[in-house]
Write a structure and sequence with these properties.
By secondary structure, the protein is α/β, with parallel strands linked by helices. The protein has three domains: 32 residues, no CATH class; 79 residues, Nucleotidyltransferase, domain 5 (2-Layer Sandwich), CATH 3.30.420.10; 53 residues, no CATH class. Helices cover 50% and strands 19% of the residues. A five-stranded mixed sheet has the order 3-2-1-4-5. Helix 6 links the parallel strand 4 and strand 5. The chain is elongated. 9% of the residues are buried. About 5% of the residues have low confidence.
């Protein structure tokens, strides 16, 4: 138990000695060679990896891989160019070498990632899903159907899957006739 509490960075050795009512020397003794052998298995676990690049200026940026649950940065790399598939491959190889089990990858619209890593489940991040919707709708729609769809899209980051799908299906049922309408102009 001491090894687990210490390895996850929750407590210092002094904190542990006070909590267990023993000296710091006793805590040091507990953190033996077995601790070093157990450490990788204590810290490495299945992860859902968030992948993205943040740029400063046109070309300088950092490729970041984070654990979706803890928010810990698992890997990063500074780049002086636009992101490339090799950057992500380097990350996956690194995480595999450490023993991480990647359950899924959440990324931006970098389409090559899905093709390059077919063995992993992948998902477009919610921010980029909303941005895709915004390209299809205006930010100030005039039609009632579009206004309602925009409101549903704004729920995406604040609801669960079932509620979102239900709202989208209700919207589709309500506006099905409208969606099937077709306007033909003189110029085709």
């Amino acid at each position: 138990m001491v090894n687990i509490r210490y390895s996850k960075g929750n407590l210092t050795i002094k904190d542990l000695s006070e909590e267990y009512g023993v000296s710091t020397r006793t805590i040091y003794r507990k953190l033996t060679k077995s601790y070093k052998e157990e450490l990788p298995s204590l810290l490495i676990r299945p992860v859902v990896v968030l992948m993205d690049v943040t740029y400063w200026g046109r070309n300088f940026g950092v490729v970041i891989m984070k654990d979706s649950l803890s928010g810990n940065v698992l890997w990063y790399k500074f780049i002086n160019r636009h992101e490339q598939l090799e950057d992500y491959k380097e990350d996956i190889i690194y995480l595999d070498s450490l023993g991480y089990t990647i359950q899924a990858i959440v990324c931006d619209g970098f389409k090559v990632l899905r093709q390059a890593f077919p063995n992993y489940k992948s998902q477009l991040c919610q921010f980029h899903q909303v941005m895709t919707i915004k390209t299809k709708l205006t930010s100030r729609p005039k039609l009632e159907a579009s206004k309602e769809l925009l409101a549903i899209s704004r729920m995406l980051c604040h609801t669960n899957k079932d509620s979102f799908i239900e709202a989208l299906e209700e919207w589709y049922t309500k506006w099905e006739g409208f969606l099937k309408e077709c306007t033909i102009t003189e110029d085709g």
